Amino acid sequence: MKSIALKLCCFALLSLSTAGYSQAQTPQAPSAFDAEIQQGNAQLQAGRADSALDAGDAAIRIDPNRWDGYALSGRALLALKRYEAAADALSKAIERAPDGEEQAELRELRRQCLLAESGVSVGAAPAAAVAAAPAPVPVPAPPSAPTAAPPPAAAPAPPPVAAAAPAAAAAPAPAAPSAAPTRVASSSAAPANGAPVSASGATTVQAAASAAPVQAVSTPPANKKGRKRKGRPAIVLNPADAAWTDVDSGLMWAKPWYFPAGGAIGPWNYRDAVAFCANLRLLGDSDWRLPTIDELQKVYLVSSKAWRWSAPKFDPDSGFDDALKGGLWRPQDFNVDGDIFPGNRLLVWSSSAGDADGEHSGVYFGRRYSVKDGTQLGESFPGERHRNPFHGYALCVRSAH
Fold it and tell me: Which of 47, 204, 312, 370 would disulfide-bridge 355, Cβ 3.0–4.6 Å?
């Protein structure tokens, strides 16, 4: 009996080992997630973007923590010319993708989506990444002795002034009361007052790259009565400090006083804001974008907007509040129905969709509003009884990783 039991045990062990060997030799079938990705890539290469999008969405449902599904959906949406949704999907892929070639490819695809959404030609060459401060214009010396007056000649046209760091920019004058909007003004004209425009029509931004600090204000700014404040030192800009990194979110925020004229640009509608950030070249980086509504509300905080002199409130670590109070950041004053309002009444656009087609979410004194894409400035928001004048603005962000 013992010999029979021993033989049965040996036979069982032999059967198990044979089954294990056979299983090891059999190639494993791809997982359901990988199968969707492979099928979606094949559909995209065949020109069937709708089917590729379905496969990408299916892969996301299977495993929402992997980046491949979002990347597939983003590429499919880009092929379908649904640029806003494509940019959102690619942003999620960037958050999950490992560093390396995948990150660079995804960021470039998202940049193309943002430019296409704003109506800018994707193939247009971007502005130079960095521009130095403009060279001084030579002035001819006066003659040593009086001579006969020559016949009058036409004055030469002034040379173009390149956009540089807001070092030499004076505080902007209030907008003239002419051509004031009635209730809410919309426009698809030039993107932003004071910002250079490229041949393709996109707003371009160039930041000074000198490592040396640039003196922005040599004398203390005047108070409301026109008297100069005493004891305030000159404001000094350092181009190497042109962004703030939020350690909690890992996002880098461009400091708007490094925009042209100390940030005194605008007002912007949604497309202007998208084009501005997509073309921003700051600290050697070119992947700037508009923040999402969630990202923006973590930095642009809720505060009172009841009074004309109310100031917005930002994350204390950002330095935005101090820059506004100290005159370093000088958003341009704006005109609504003949009244001039301070430029700090900012409606900052986000990349998140609004409550209806043709609308996007913006933040005004920390609160979310759904605003029509063509709006540049207005007297109040829909559904509000009180007057809350605002003008459209952009804060630009990128991943610090």
Answer: 370
